[in-house]
Fold:
Amino acid sequence: MSRNLLRLLCGLGIAGWCMGGSCSIRLGDGDIPLNEADAEIIILQQAGGANASVTAGITDRHGNKVVFGPDQGVSVNGVALSGPDRDGEYTASVPAAAQYVITVAEPTRGVFDTTVHAPADFQITAPAAGATASLSGFEVSWSAAESGVQATVELRQTLLGRGRLKTLGPVPDTGVLAVSADDLRSFQQGADLTVTVTRANDSLAVSGLGSAAVSVQRWAIVAVVPGP
Structure:
C-alpha cells in the first residue's frame, strides 16, 4: 500500500470517528506535556457551604482538549480532576477551604504545587432577605471586603415566564455597590428579585502548566421584594 493511500485512509477514519460531535485526537498516551498546555480553572463555593466545585478546561496550543496520559494529572487539595466530559471539561468536588493547592503531575518534568487563596467567607448585609428593595435604586453591601479581590453583583428575576438578568462588575471589593434606577429598568414588581454577590480571587500562574487562569470564587444570595 502506498504511503499516500495510507494517509488518505487514516484521514477518512478520523473524520468518520469525529462526525456527530466534538472529538479529541490523540496519537498516543500523554502526547501533550502539561507544561505546553493551557488551562482555565474555576473553583466555586457558596458562602458557608461545605464543598466547592472545580471545573477546568485544559487544551493544547491549537485549542484541542487535552486527555491525560499515564501519570499525568491535575488535582486540587489532593482530589484528582476527572474527565474530560462531553464538553471537554475536567471536574471535581472538594471540601471547601480557605486555600487550594493545585497539583500538576507531568512525568517528563515532575510534580508542581501552586497555592491559591479563597476570598474570606462573608454574608450579604443589605438588603436583608425578604426586605423590600426600591426599583428607584438601593445599595448592596456585604461583609469581609478584601483588597485584591473582585466583586460582581447579579440581579435576577423571573416574571410571567420571562427571565431578566443584570450583571454589575467585576469591581474592586469594597463591600458595597450602588444599584441605580437605570440598572433596574428591566425589573418590575410582582416577583422576587434575587441578589447574588460573587467575590473572586484570580491568578494567572500555575506551576507545571504552560499558561493558566485560575479564579477562586465565593458567592452568597438573597431574595428581596421589588418595591416602588
